[in-house]
Predict the structure.
Amino acid sequence: MRAKVRFDRIHDLIKMLGGQIDFEYVPPAELHTSQSLIVFNNERFEIALNGRFRLEERQQNWILAQELSHFLLHYPMVREKHGDVAMAANRYPDQSNPAAVQARREAMWFAFGLLTPAKAFMEAYRSTDRPVSLEFRFNLPYRVIDLRYQYLSELKASG
């Protein structure tokens, strides 16, 4: 029997798992070296959203889901390999590091699955003549909605 965890907002899920969400201003020159996630241990982590002002909730949801995925997917691998150590994830991965690029890709697909489950998403997409309205239904930026649709359409076309 599978149990379902109920949460109304991604913020609630992060807090349930021991996470804290902060906002910080990062100067543009430091963006590529700044950290967006710090995991202290299996029960405590911090996500730092960039911005002097709070991001729109739709944008927050997308970023938070990706950072949460690093905690859920990648931190267990770090612990397995290195023991109980802290882990940090940069805001932007080093494009010359294949492992960092792959981790970012995995985080994005995890976030898609969490926030836009394939079946529900495609049913909603097919039932509307205004796909832009799905940004309100799924509480995500339209660029994310469009990217998810493109991916699922290509996946279906490939078999």
Remarks:
- The helical segments are 10-16, 57-82, 98-115, 118-126, 134-137, 142-157.
- The chain has a mean pLDDT of 91.
- Strands lie at 19-24, 35-41, 44-50, 87-90.
